[in-house]
Amino acid sequence: MRRIFSAGQSGFRFGRGYGNMASQATPEQVEKARQAVMRFRELLDLMHIRLDSYERAYANLFAHLPAETASLPEKERQRQAAHTVIDDDKALVRVVLTARFDSRDFEREYEALHDRIVELHGLDLESDS
Fold it and tell me: What residues contact 46, with CB distance under 8 A and at least 6 apart?
């Protein structure tokens, strides 16, 4: 199987690729590749926005706690917030459900982007071992 990305210690890096494909690319292929790069950036930006909203929702779980609890260890603050969640779980359920469906949407978007990139190169990953 040919790899586009390989896991490295600091995340993903470009690994085995497609050689000197750019010199053989048509203007249409270059534009499609540029659009794929642009879409990747858009998806990353959207993920950052969504993650920020989830972080705010997480912080809001602690908004009702007295100020003196701010110095407590995270686990103890979570325990304090849990009492409120037990009484009223609507906020947590809503944000977790939103994250769940957002994750599915992102998975589909990344799958479609991956398929377009692979199609651009005419690769059949199943037979490229």
Answer: 106
Asked if residue 34 lies in contact with residue 27, where contact means CB atoms within 8 angstroms, the answer is no
Instruction: Measure the CA dihedral 71/73/78/83, to 10°.
Output: -60
pLDDT tens digits for range 96-105: 999 999 999 9
pLDDT tens digits, 42-71: 999 999 999 999 999 999 999 999 999 999
62: which residues sit within 8 A by CB, 6+ positions away?
A: 69, 77, 80, 81
**Residue 108 CB contacts under 8 Å (≥ 6 apart), including other chains:** none
pLDDT band at 26, cuts 50/70/90? confident
Contact status, residue 118 vs residue 125, Cβ threshold 8 Å: yes
CA quadruple 107, 95, 12, 30: dihedral sign: positive
Question: Cα–Cα distance between 5 and 95 in angstroms, integer?
Answer: 31
Question: Which residues have CB under 8 Å from 83's CB, separation 6+?
Answer: none
